[in-house]
């Protein structure tokens, strides 16, 4: 049994109920998400061979502080960084460190800013220098998977429609969908109900209703879908060491579809690749 609750009356914790937000909340999310999108835009100018992922982390922290926002990941459940930087076969939650990016790498940068209590959550892939065609194709497939998932969002559909759209496309392109991680409700809370699976069937999962806000963030592998988490407790990698990619948007369900809160104001939703917003 799925419960829905008006967000304004919901307790400040994840109870399993799905929050329905009003127009004022949507405006708060627009501001937070656009700040995150502007940060991700700015990163496109600095990601290049030789850059330390710790330097990316400092950039994100400073960007947030300069705009009155706080990185949601900093000190979240013991995590000590302001962003996640996931390179090549790292699926997600890569921890910034003092190792430099190398020519040919692909890196996902995941940023969530808390602005006036609202969480703006998004991530993008950045090619480092000149990447191989296989890596470029993976980025294309992953981005298209995200946009197909978003296109399935409308009131009356179920969350499974998002997963089916992503899985059907990605697997037809001979890629695999990671099942160990998923999208999630977001708003006043960083991680809330419902979980948004990136695989499944259209008739499964909670019904989508106007006012819901959540992330869609498919992780797509060139090889098999299986992952493992390293000893640091955060870094997830592909078991077969195949390349992995991820793009993420935060969306809100509207009366006739959805609004993408985290669209790039500079048309850089796919940094280093031709602009394409679906």
Automatic annotation (TrEMBL):
<dbReference type="InterPro" id="IPR002467">
    <property type="entry name" value="Pept_M24A_MAP1"/>
</dbReference>
<feature type="binding site">
    <location>
        <position position="121"/>
    </location>
    <ligand>
        <name>a divalent metal cation 2</name>
    </ligand>
</feature>
<keyword id="KW-0479">Metal-binding</keyword>
<feature type="binding site">
    <location>
        <position position="93"/>
    </location>
    <ligand>
        <name>substrate</name>
    </ligand>
</feature>
<feature type="binding site">
    <location>
        <position position="191"/>
    </location>
    <ligand>
        <name>substrate</name>
    </ligand>
</feature>
<dbReference type="Pfam" id="PF00557">
    <property type="entry name" value="Peptidase_M24"/>
</dbReference>
<keyword id="KW-0378">Hydrolase</keyword>
<protein>
    <recommendedName>
        <fullName>Methionine aminopeptidase</fullName>
        <ecNumber>3.4.11.18</ecNumber>
    </recommendedName>
</protein>
<feature type="domain" description="Peptidase M24">
    <location>
        <begin position="27"/>
        <end position="254"/>
    </location>
</feature>
<feature type="binding site">
    <location>
        <position position="248"/>
    </location>
    <ligand>
        <name>a divalent metal cation 2</name>
    </ligand>
</feature>
<keyword id="KW-0645">Protease</keyword>
<dbReference type="InterPro" id="IPR000994">
    <property type="entry name" value="Pept_M24"/>
</dbReference>
<dbReference type="GO" id="GO:0004239">
    <property type="term" value="F:initiator methionyl aminopeptidase activity"/>
</dbReference>
<dbReference type="InterPro" id="IPR036005">
    <property type="entry name" value="Creatinase/aminopeptidase-like"/>
</dbReference>
<comment type="similarity">
    <text>Belongs to the peptidase M24A family. Methionine aminopeptidase type 1 subfamily.</text>
</comment>
<dbReference type="GO" id="GO:0006508">
    <property type="term" value="P:proteolysis"/>
</dbReference>
<feature type="binding site">
    <location>
        <position position="121"/>
    </location>
    <ligand>
        <name>a divalent metal cation 1</name>
    </ligand>
</feature>
<feature type="binding site">
    <location>
        <position position="217"/>
    </location>
    <ligand>
        <name>a divalent metal cation 2</name>
    </ligand>
</feature>
<feature type="binding site">
    <location>
        <position position="110"/>
    </location>
    <ligand>
        <name>a divalent metal cation 1</name>
    </ligand>
</feature>
<comment type="function">
    <text>Removes the N-terminal methionine from nascent proteins. The N-terminal methionine is often cleaved when the second residue in the primary sequence is small and uncharged (Met-Ala-, Cys, Gly, Pro, Ser, Thr, or Val). Requires deformylation of the N(alpha)-formylated initiator methionine before it can be hydrolyzed.</text>
</comment>
<dbReference type="GO" id="GO:0046872">
    <property type="term" value="F:metal ion binding"/>
</dbReference>
<keyword id="KW-0031">Aminopeptidase</keyword>
<dbReference type="GO" id="GO:0005829">
    <property type="term" value="C:cytosol"/>
</dbReference>
<feature type="binding site">
    <location>
        <position position="184"/>
    </location>
    <ligand>
        <name>a divalent metal cation 2</name>
    </ligand>
</feature>
<feature type="binding site">
    <location>
        <position position="248"/>
    </location>
    <ligand>
        <name>a divalent metal cation 1</name>
    </ligand>
</feature>
<comment type="subunit">
    <text>Monomer.</text>
</comment>
<dbReference type="GO" id="GO:0070006">
    <property type="term" value="F:metalloaminopeptidase activity"/>
</dbReference>
<dbReference type="InterPro" id="IPR001714">
    <property type="entry name" value="Pept_M24_MAP"/>
</dbReference>
């Amino acid at each position: 049994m799925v419960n829905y609750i008006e967000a304004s009356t919901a307790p400040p914790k994840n109870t399993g109920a799905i929050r329905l937000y009003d127009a004022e909340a949507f405006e708060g999310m627009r501001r937070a998400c656009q700040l995150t999108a502007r940060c991700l835009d700015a990163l496109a100018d600095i990601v290049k061979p030789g850059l330390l992922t710790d330097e990316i982390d400092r950039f994100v922290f400073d960007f947030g502080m300069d705009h009155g926002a706080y990185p949601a990941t900093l000190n979240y459940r013991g995590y000590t960084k302001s962003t996640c930087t996931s390179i090549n076969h790292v699926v997600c939650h890569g921890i910034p460190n003092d190792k430099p990016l190398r020519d040919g790498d692909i890196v996902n940068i995941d940023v969530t800013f808390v602005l006036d209590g609202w969480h703006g959550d998004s991530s993008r892939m950045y090619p480092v220098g000149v990447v191989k065609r296989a890596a470029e194709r993976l980025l294309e497939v992953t981005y298209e998977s995200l946009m197909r998932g978003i296109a399935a969002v409308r009131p009356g559909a179920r969350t499974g429609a998002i997963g089916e759209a992503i899985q059907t496309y990605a697997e037809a392109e001979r890629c695999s969908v990671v099942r160990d991680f998923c999208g999630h409700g977001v708003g006043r809370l960083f991680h809330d109900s419902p979980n948004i699976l990136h695989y499944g069937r259209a008739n499964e999962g909670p019904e989508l209703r106007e006012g819901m806000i959540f992330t869609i963030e498919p992780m797509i592998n060139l090889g098999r879908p299986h992952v493992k988490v390293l000893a640091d407790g955060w870094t997830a990698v592909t078991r077969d060491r195949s390349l992995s990619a991820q793009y993420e948007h935060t969306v809100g369900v509207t009366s006739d579809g959805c609004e993408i809160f985290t669209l790039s104001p500079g048309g850089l939703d796919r940094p280093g690749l031709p602009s394409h917003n679906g």
